[in-house]
Amino acid sequence: MTMRPFPSFRMPANLSRLAVGATVSATVLAGALATGTPAFADHADHSQVGTTRAADTSQVAADKQQLRRGTAQTVLRVAEQQVGVTENAAGGGTPFHKWYMASPRAQQTLARDGGNLQAYANAPWCAMFVSWVGEKAGVRPSMGWDAYTVTWAKWFENEQRWGNTAKPGAVVFFSWDAKSISSIDHVGLVKKDNGDGTITTIEGNTGNGKVEQRVRPKSQVVGYGYPQYKA
């Protein structure tokens, strides 16, 4: 039996620290929907690959006036400004949770996936983070927005903007144990291809409960979504 999860995660007993996969059993999901608790597939990673780096606020201020709205560079700068933002003890409380809950998209995904609005407050937030960045950088129409990583990846695929090449500003979708869209666990933004089988990324909802810059092996990547940036 196949059921579509609400935003994103394999449901653990404790909703506060979600390292939950995108594949949710029908039994668990049915119980979640029955109680109005969404199953999230926006999946925190607990590996320690790469390092956390604080944003250089002086450089951000200098660059802000130079960057053109709607470019990959703008998106990455907006994301870098958030490095170090940390979730609360319940796994939520970030500006990205608050923004998503107040956005029209939250109502759309609730209508699509079920559950209740308050469940987003402490939900896994990697997809909400990337959605927030797209909104603030002025590229949401071509980047999309969602709280469920699998549906978001399928949206890029349907838009024919899905591929396997790491590009700066691409939305990168990860799976820790498989290589199909339905198994996607986590999402971030590509900062650069390091040319050695790894990519540098900026991600929210890492294993440390933060926005961090990471270095990840391409073997964990399911695919990339490509927003339509200005040249």
UniProtKB/TrEMBL annotation:
Coiled-coil stretches: none
Signal keyword on record: yes
TM segment ranges: none
Domain Peptidase C51: 121-205
Signal peptide: 1-41
Source organism superkingdom: Bacteria
A Pfam family the protein falls into: CHAP
Sorted UniProt keywords: Signal
Protein name: Peptidase C51 domain-containing protein
